[in-house]
Design a protein that fits this description.
about 325 residues; five-stranded parallel β-sheet; elongated; Zinc Finger, Delta Prime, domain 3; 2 domains; Rossmann fold
Length: about 325
């Protein structure tokens, strides 16, 4: 099974009425890497002619051997999500040209996948709209996007929208167990119960623990201990962690409950009772401000030290 366990229901829905599959699908609601992985598996299955009982591709038939890169009935248009590459009218023209050709397989479908469709320019979106409105016979256009709000409403209204759901906490724990990451389960809350976000950040776990050990000291924190590892993952990363810690202190102070750091309850209780509410709110405000420009070229050290001086001073003892 090449999909994540929490996508199983969605997978079954996709194949529940294959003969009536619409000509345009729009997948959204998760990280684009997670969506694109699922969509690749779906496309493989739609092309394969020897599906397994659970509708997974066989990996052996002529269609599977062609693979996603070479199959003559498939076109994948991608934009690198890390770079700010746009998808242009030229890309959409390629799509139209491809769909005009007859399919290689007898009675086969021609499939186009447009990954990270929020990268389409307005002109490209309008050009694509015409194809979605009047699609050639037997074609399937698949769009993927993290947030559906980033697409033109005229596009979304013409597609069947398919939203990804998050794993439940039980599914997330089971997944970490099964992938030999049992030791990370206690950090799930810090990543909003997303095992994929947690795994993507796995390497930073020792850093996080060292930083938390300093933060737990409250007023007694020695600012000389703010070393290179605090900056290793960039200013945005450390400010994000500090924000979650400050939120946890405020949450316990006001609501007597925990969210991100359930394993640090003992320290959170003591620190939040010891923190001055006005100073804690002011500290949070500073973190929000720094985060807004943390990814630009600023002096990380000056910004971090100033906010940590504030942190130290907000505790009464
Ligand atoms: Zn196959």
């Amino acid at each position: 099974m090449n999909i994540y366990p929490w996508q199983k229901d969605l997978w079954e829905i996709m194949f529940s009425n294959k003969t009536k599959m619409p000509h345009a699908l729009l997948f959204y609601g998760a990280k684009t890497s997670e969506i694109n992985k699922f969509v690749n598996e779906l496309v493989k299955s739609l092309l394969c002619n020897k599906l397994s009982e659970e509708n997974f591709s066989c990996g052996e038939c002529e269609n599977c051997i062609w693979g996603l890169k070479n199959h003559p009935d498939l076109k994948i248009i991608e934009s690198d999500s890390e770079k700010s590459e746009k998808l242009s009218v030229t890309n959409v023209r390629e799509v139209k040209k491809f769909l005009e050709l007859s399919s290689h397989q007898t009675n086969g479908k021609k499939i186009v996948t447009i990954c990270n469709a929020d990268k389409l320019t307005i002109a490209a979106s309008n050009s694509l709209l015409k194809t979605i409105e009047e699609p050639p016979n037997d074609c399937l256009i698949i769009l993927t996007v993290k947030d559906v709000a980033n697409l033109l409403p005229t596009i979304t209204s013409r597609c069947r929208l398919i939203c990804f759901s998050k794993p439940t906490i039980e599914q997330a724990k089971e997944f970490l167990n099964r992938t030999d990451n049992k030791d990370l389960i206690s950090n799930l809350e810090l990543y909003n119960n997303s095992p994929l976000d947690l795994l993507a950040d796995k390497e930073t776990m020792p850093n996080i623990n060292s930083i938390l050990n300093e933060l737990k000291k409250g007023r007694k924190i020695d600012l000389m201990n703010i070393n290179n590892y605090w900056f290793e993952n960039g200013l945005f990363w450390i400010i994000n962690l500090l924000q979650k810690w400050a939120y946890e202190l405020l949450l316990f102070k006001l609501c007597r409950t925990h969210n991100y750091f359930p394993n640090e309850k003992e320290y959170i209780v003591e620190l939040s009772e010891n923190a001055d509410l006005t100073k804690l709110l002011s500290h949070q405000k500073s973190l929000i401000q720094i985060k807004s420009y943390a990814e630009t070229a600023v002096n990380s050290e000056i910004n971090l030290y100033s906010v940590m001086i504030e942190y130290k001073k907000m505790f009464k003892v």
